[in-house]
Amino acid sequence: MLAGKRILLIIGGGIAAFKSLDLIRRLRERGATVVPVLTKAGQEFVTPLSASALAAEKVYTDLFNLTDEAEMGHIELSRDADLVVVAPATADLMAKMAGGHANDLASTILMATDKRVLIAPAMNVRMWDHAATQRNATTLQQDGVIIVGPNEGDMACGEYGPGRMAEPLEIVAAIEAALNDGPLKDKRIVVTSGPTHEPIDPVRYIANRSSGAQGSAIARALSALGAEVVFVTGPAEARPPDGVSVVPVQTAQEMHDAVHKNLPADAAVFAAAVADWRVENSAEQKIKKGPDGTPSLKFTENPDILASVAGLEVGRPRLVVGFAAETTNVTEHATAKRLRKGCDWIVANDVSPGTGIMGGSENAVTMITDQGADAWPRMTKDEVARKLAHQIAEALNDA
Ligand code: C5P
User: Fold this and answer.
1) Which of the residues 201, 229, 302, 339 has an alpha carbon 20 to 30 A from that of 19?
2) Do 6-178 and 188-398 fold alike per CATH?
3) 141 alpha carbon to ligand 1 midpoint, in Å?
4) Given 1, 157, 203, 375, the catalytic residue
5) 132 by DSSP, 3-state: which?
6) CATH of range 6-178; options 2.60.40.420, 3.40.50.150, 3.40.50.1950, 2.160.10.10
């Protein structure tokens, strides 16, 4: 699947660098050429000789090596690859990338490249959780960088939490998705997913039971067909798929802003269970019990994200897909919703109690288009996602 692909692998300085040697092996097994670049710190963890022996390629280590510059300049190196991968991506490398620094070979390549960049962060849990790293991760995602992991687990430093580099095979899967020549290659698709949280006060919020499973499966299926997926997700239980740009949000308003900020796109799929209302008088401080009795919450309507995108006069995605969770007269309600919201398709599902669909692994959907209603047999959410992704590919590739 990676035959003929050329991957520039920047190995940063972290204990996880040893896993990058295995990553080289796994990529080569799949037919890719891997050109390693070792940062100065990376060389403290793995030697240029081992990287070069496993890659069977020359290893690049220093920006001002005149011999290398004569043979292949750093600009050419950055353009020659199909994908630039940074594994492990340390907190420092991420900060440099987010800040646009170019003071060594790795950061210069990352600034000069015209290819997509995929990073696998690895660092101490507190470094990952640090506001600066989180800010940098958000900036990088907004810049279109694909972030794989980090995973949660025991760390080399003895602590526990998110910070472990994704496993080599997880990174390989994300690389394959990023390089996929599938029918959605060169198509950018925004997917919303999960619930939204609407604050009552700084510690309380109103939410719903959406797990984000269907939205996550759709993002994965679109990415597997080669799409560049921007995954705008509320606080969901389901893990976002590897290989997509994740934009985490909390509220409907934030989701609305993130979606519009990430347009233009070829298609947009609105699988999120967005709160229809938010608390208008949400409190700045925690609401206290007291002699005044129970608080009274006043609601105001949230923006309808789907309708706002479907109604765009300029920059409307070619295909806008909404969801409808109904408990009665599914087809009738969903057909009316398609017209009311101005979207092209509605994926309608019956979530009445007893179907086990809300929060379950299966779904029974009816697809509503301008051609009418098509009831799909009950299948897993992954299968629904794949079928939907194929139909989206067909629609976008039509004429
Ligand atoms: O109106 P209803 O909530 O049933 O519509 C469901 C569809 O509209 C879903 O696709 C959902 O993601 C989208 N939606 C939205 N913004 C809202 C409410 C719903 O994008 N505020």
Assistant:
1) 229
2) yes
3) 25
4) 157
5) helix
6) 3.40.50.1950
Domain boundaries, the chain: 6-178, 188-398
Contacts of 34 (CB under 8 A, 6+ apart): 7, 9, 24, 27, 28, 55, 57
pTM over 0.85: no
- Pocket flag, ligand 1, residue 306 (CB < 6 Å): yes
Residue from 18, 15, 53, 16 nearest 34 by CA: 53
Does domain 188-398 match CATH 3.40.50.300? no
pLDDT digits (tens, 9 = 90+) for 135-189: 999 899 878 898 998 988 877 777 888 889 999 998 998 898 888 767 898 899 9
Q: How far is the centre of ligand 1, averaged over its atoms, from the C-alpha of 244 (Å)?
A: 22
Contact 216, 238 (CB under 8 A): yes
Q: What is the pLDDT of residues 26-73, one digit of tens each?
A: 999 999 999 999 999 999 999 999 999 999 999 999 766 756 666 667
